[in-house]
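Example 3.2
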Amino acid sequence: MGKKVQLRTLLDCCDLITDGAHKSPKTYDKGLPYVTVRDVNDDGDIDTIGCKKINKIDFDLLAKGNCQPVKGDILFSKDGTVGKVALVDVQEPFVVLSSLAILRPNKIILNSNYFKYMMLSPNIQDEAIGLKTGAAIKRIVLKTINLIRIPLPSLPEQQRIVTKLDGLFAKINQAIGLLEDNIEHTQTLMGSVLDEEFSNSKNKLKPIKGLVLKTKTSSPKAEYLNNEFTYIDISSVNKDIFQIESPKVLLGIDAPSRARKVVEKGDVVFATTRPNLKNIAIVSEDYTNPIASTGFCLLRTKKELLNNEYLFYFLISEKVQEYIQPFIKGAQYPAISDKDLLSIEIPFLSIKKQEESVNRIKSIFDVSNNLVATQTQKLNHLKALKSSLLDQAFKGEL
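Structure, written as tokens:
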């Protein structure tokens, strides 16, 4: 940008700063698009096809109430997940819920694409997240959004920055796409290995229920109070590598109501909410007073009958996804019960043959997991590079 550029508030730069509907209309399977924060992904794409639908009467009422973005507007998530940014460039009209702010730039002084990049910059993101208020649901309010400041160089300089970032991001996104393809192909190979291992029709089958022990529940609030315990919830599981990473350490008094299942090293946890996401892992460490969320089915094998790693590999196979599909209930939060999962039949082999199976799978998975970890690390570096470029643009160093 050359010389230092003055920061201007969004109130100074926008013709309109508002948010969507504060009262949710009735939704339907068919109708006109009603977009919420869940319909804006991390890449800034707006899903007007898979979003909820409302009737024309409600749509027209919301459109008249400034809940309908127009091309060139910026959507900025303000409730719950704060900081998602999307440039409106879709042709089909839609309205939004109050979780999304509509920022309409004054096009005489502010380029929409430049505005999008500035709202994505680390400075703005950190500022917005730091301004969140509220107890149950964290949010940033409109009067606070009004006061967020962005650098406002001349329109030609804004366009130069946009052109530079577009070119750099296109190359980075291409590299990200190749890495994601490599990860997907690797995971497909891993799936094929599991399918082959568990598809022998000659193997005897037994319900999982008869091969696992009954586990205990506990109330950390009562048992630990001012002492620490380790809380394993669904967010603790890295579903890309099926491992528990950085579980929360809490005081008993601060325990969430879902913290109930007493865990031991060697247990297998299987998330029963959105089971298609495969939040599944073996508890491989001796955590301090470990307690798992009731969102998991906790599986502790009878060691003389079932190898826990053999069970784990079976549970992450597509075979299990096929088995559980008929049991899944709920639209917004699809889930299965512990009872339904335990009713699934697993190929039952001798312990020795189970161990041989585990060794065959591990020999391939160790290589594959290392490859996925390497590719994921490269992905993270590329995403960090994008953040760094945005930071440079914000500071006038691009």
